UniProtKB/TrEMBL annotation:
Top-rank taxon: Bacteria
Pfam family, one: AAA_lid_2
Residues annotated as domain ChlI/MoxR AAA lid: 230-302
Organism: Alkalicoccobacillus plakortidis
Gene3D superfamilies assigned: Magnesium chelatase subunit I, C-Terminal domain (1.10.8.80), P-loop containing nucleotide triphosphate hydrolases (3.40.50.300)
SUPFAM superfamilies linked to this entry: P-loop containing nucleoside triphosphate hydrolases (SSF52540)
Name of the protein in question: MoxR family ATPase
Taxonomic path: Bacteria, Bacillati, Bacillota, Bacilli, Bacillales
Amino acid sequence: MHSTEHVEKVIANIERVVVGKRNEIELSLVALLAGGHVLLEDVPGVGKTMMVKAIAKSFGANFKRIQFTPDLLPSDVTGVSIYNQKTQEFEFKQGPIMANIVLADEINRTSPKTQSSLLEALEEGNVTIDGETHRLEQPFFVMATQNPIEYAGTFPLPEAQLDRFLLKIKLGYPDLDDELEILNRLENKHPIEQIKAVLDTSELLTLRDQAAAIFADQNIKNYLIQIVHETRKSELIDLGVSPRGSIALMKAAKALALVAGREYVLPDDIKRLAGPVLAHRLTLSTQARMSNVSADEVIQQILNSVEIPVSRRRLTSS
């Protein structure tokens, strides 16, 4: 089966649970295929939890949920070594981070110390407990949810942790027709109980390899770098995107090309992903904040100012 057919089967499966959010589903799969992680920010009750559960069930992956609360400890996330009196040795008890797909629910409800316990896992794919490093099984994918910062009782994520998420997306409220469809589907039985795996984790890893092998023309790379460099020069931005952001945007663009059924990256891939990949990596200036200009709007201004290249691969394939 072609990779595009694989991806379409997964999207269709998730859409049985998540109604009217094709774009957000595709972006979540882009992060998964690129080996990155997703931060979902939105108000409660719009389907954030159902999204990640549907993704996990679609791949038959080992799934764990971490409900972040103010009293959660780092060891509650990573695991802990416990002394066994019978064997007189320490035994490691795995934490919920030891899974293929992890839902870090309401991550900004917990303390910064516990939030930071995710950093090593997100970036390096392992956790260190009592000086011993434990490798996380691949695929490893975290989808963290958070309520907007203005809600009471939340701890804003520090820049170092925000940078670990490949994409930041919002689901938003459904429109009238979609909400009616949600009511109809939930009338008897929740659809999450009915969906089954359409791929397995080995097929997911194969798709990841295929995404990494997608071709990116030199003009495309130059276009990407120009966008990133503009974030470092804009008067509306105090702290621009780091090289890690450039790498993240390239990985995501390749994964998006695979989702679209192409073997090469187009400028449109960069344009579509610039906001979700770069906006949360910026620190806006006081001028921008006082003018109520959002990071997404600044990114859009930059996209409008940078000349779009013509990919040689696109010319030869047309």
